[in-house]
Specification:
Number of domains: 1
Strand content: over 45%
Helix content: 10-25%
Largest sheet: 5 strands, mixed, barrel
CATH topology: OB fold (Dihydrolipoamide Acetyltransferase, E2P)
Structural class: mainly beta
Radius of gyration: 19 Å
Order of helices and strands: HEEEEEE
Number of helices: 1
Distance between the termini: 62 Å
CATH superfamily: Copper binding periplasmic protein CusF
Number of strands: 6
CATH architecture: Beta Barrel
Length: 126
């Protein structure tokens, strides 16, 4: 029984170590897009009327997942008017789009793991 408990404890610590890689999420309006980077203006914590957006820049790699997100009448998983996403290329992300970027910090660089892009307005699907 003690051996089983010890093995369970070691397994739990191993899972905790795997999940220790901190993925951060940043949301904002795209200000620049290139083949290797995406920059957004993100509103940080509200500090009063003088609060201004902060420019965040993230590296884009070949393994970065890009998705176009939009509302759907049927929604996702049965929720009416929920957001649905479909895989896309970085070329569909434009200045002015609202994005959520999942980021993995690596040293001095923030590497984008996933970019979910939403284009608002009447021509959002174009």
């Amino acid at each position: 029984m003690r051996l089983f408990s010890a093995a369970l404890l070691v397994g739990w610590f191993a899972m905790a170590a795997v999940n220790a890689v901190a993925v951060e999420k940043h949301s904002g309006v795209v200000t620049e897009v290139s083949e290797t980077q995406i920059a957004i203006d993100e509103m940080g914590p509200w500090l009063g009327p003088s609060t201004k957006p902060v420019r965040q820049t993230f590296d884009v790699t070949a393994s970065t997942k890009i998705a176009r997100v939009e509302r759907s009448v049927k929604g996702d998983e049965g929720w009416p008017w929920a957001y649905v996403s479909e895989p896309a290329d970085l070329s569909v992300v434009h200045v002015g789009d609202f994005v959520t970027v999942s980021v993995e910090p690596r040293g001095r660089h923030n590497v984008a793991v996933e970019v979910q892009a939403l284009r608002a307005g009447p021509n959002a699907l174009d």
